[in-house]
Amino acid sequence: MGWQTNFYRKQFLWSKKHMDYDMETLVEHSIDKLRRLCDSNAHKILELGGGNGQFAVTAAQHGYDITVIEIIPECVEHIYHLKEKYHIGENLRIIEGDFYEVSLMDSFDVVCYWDGFGIESDAEQQLLLRNISNWLKPGGTALIDIYTPWYWAAHAGQEVRFGKIHREYEFDAEECRMLDNWWLADDKENVITQSLRCYSPVDLKLLLNDTELQFIHYESGGAMDYENWTYHGSVSLEKAMMYTAKLQKE
After folding, report:
1. 2-147+199-249, which class in CATH?
2. Whether 211 contacts 248, CB under 8 Å
3. What is the pLDDT of residue 3?
4. Distance between CA 116 and CA 103 in Å, rounded?
5. Which of 18, 66, 100, 134 is the most buried (most CB within 10 A)?
6. Quick one: pLDDT at residue 22?
7. Residue 99 pLDDT > 60, yes or no?
8. d(CA 221, CA 7)
């Protein structure tokens, strides 16, 4: 994922500086999803791509034993900051590295990958899924946010603005990828782009060949009403920008 690390680094720094968004508030709703979709005795969690650390710290505060992998140094530093701020102990471990390459000796009840699956090619996504399968205990659960192709194809050309940050969505129909372009006001020449492969549930199931993972079910996500500038947190799959796939190791 090296070619996209520049995007995620600048996304974090720009968001921290220019967006009216509290990166230090714990995200209780994420724990509700975890409890709803996982077995009640699931305790040991691996999070891939921890970002600003809100989920990892929230999970640790709720007593989960969590390991988080994050590649962006500034994000890792922020996670350590939150760990100290909320007085989190040894039940939160932070690994700075690339989760496509990192070697882990532990096995986990749950592997979470929120809002980011699809960074690389299909082959590399399959490699990651095999790694996830290897990291899970037998009967363990993977929760992965998947972007839908229909939502992003329908919203190609949509522009949004958050203070000095401008965003424009595009859709690569041939490669089935959502393109999320960011730039600062009056500086569009220095645009940064996130590119995520989109999958329907049936497409995702094809990636699970040669793994020990089974597709159990999905939970549909939300959608943005850009005309009224309102977000609907739960809509039907055909309207959703993403869904959370629940996978289980055989």
Report:
1. alpha beta
2. no
3. 60
4. 20
5. 66
6. 84
7. yes
8. 24
**Number of neighbouring beta carbons within 10 Å of residue 86:** 15
DSSP letter string over 19-86? S---TTS--HHHHHHHHHHS-TT--EEEEES-TTSHHHHHHHHTT-EEEEEE--HHHHHHHHHHHHHT
Domain residue ranges of the chain, discontinuous segments joined by +: 2-147+199-249
**Phi and psi torsions of 213, nearest 5°:** -95, 140
pLDDT for the residue numbered 11: 95
Token duo for residue 81 = 């900051």
In the 8-state DSSP scheme, what is residue 211? S
Helix, strand, coil distribution of the chain in percent, nearest 5:
30, 35, 35
- Count of positions (residues) in the chain: 250
Long-range Cβ contacts of 179-185 (<8 Å, 24+ apart): 182/7, 182/10, 182/11, 182/14, 184/14, 184/18
Task: Specify the pairing of strand 177-184 against strand 65-70.
Answer: unpaired
